[in-house]
Amino acid sequence: MGYTSHVSQRVARAKSALARLYRFRDLATGLKLHLVKALVLPILSYPPVPLHALSRTAISRLQKVQNSALRFAFGTRWDDFTTSASLHEAASLPALNVRLHEMATKVWERMEDEGWDQYRELQALHEETPDRQHAWFPRSLLQLQEGQPEPRYRNFIPASSCHHSTCELRNAMLTGRGPATYRETRDEDQGDDGAADQRRQGTSGTCQD
Questions:
Q1: Which of 10, 61, 53 is closest to 144 using CA atoms?
Q2: Domain segments of the chain: what residues?
Q3: Potential cystine with 104: which of 29, 37, 48, 204 (Cβ 3.0-4.6 Å)?
Q4: Reported pTM
């Protein structure tokens, strides 16, 4: 099974788990949040290696389900204009890309501390080609070298697709940055993989979540 199929499977299972929780919509927020963290979020983060190294598009599909789960827990509607970033802050929960990075780091540290033979073999392979990405699957150790990522709560719109100020303002709001700060960091955020994601989705010239 390729990682794209795995992500689709994770999304479907997490949505199904979340749907089963809607019968408890009248529970207190704390109880609903506990149910979400116990029954939905683990589905989205398994396995952290190599899930953390997938493309922004792939992780954003998982992040959208996490956003929906938090909106259920806090009882917010789309017209409440509550940002996903504020919901994560209220839940004391990092964005999924950050949480996957932290979990993957712990996995590799445990393998090293316990002296796994597999860890030594993978580390040796990594040192042979430290800067080259795998042809068809993302390399976890290579991704971890880049350090902890900036939290991403929703999809970014590639700069090449933004033909008006609405796109820029929307991205600034969703990232929790001011418009000026967003403009300064937009190019860095987008990177080469953002352009690749756009080509794979066929979303050129559009604004979407």
A1: 53
A2: 1-154, 159-201
A3: 48
A4: 0.71
3-state SS class at 33: helix
159: which 2 tokens? 């700069």
CA atoms of 186 and 176, how far apart (whole Å):
13
pLDDT score, position 193: 46
> First CA to last CA across the chain, in angstroms?
27
Q: Report the amino acid identity of residue 74.
A: F
According to DSSP, residue 146 is labeled T
Chain-centre distance for alpha carbon 137: 17
Query: Which amino acid would we find at residue 137?
Result: F
Cα–Cα distances in Å, from 25 out to 30, 42, 76, 190? 12, 20, 11, 37
User: Using one digit for the tens of pLDDT, what is the confidence trace for 107-129?
Assistant: 999 998 999 998 899 888 888 88
**Which long-range CB contacts under 8 A does 35-38 form with residues at least 24 apart?**
35/73, 36/69, 36/70, 36/72, 36/73, 37/93
The helix/strand count (H/E) of the chain reads as: 11, 0
Cα distance between residue 129 and residue 39, in whole Å: 39
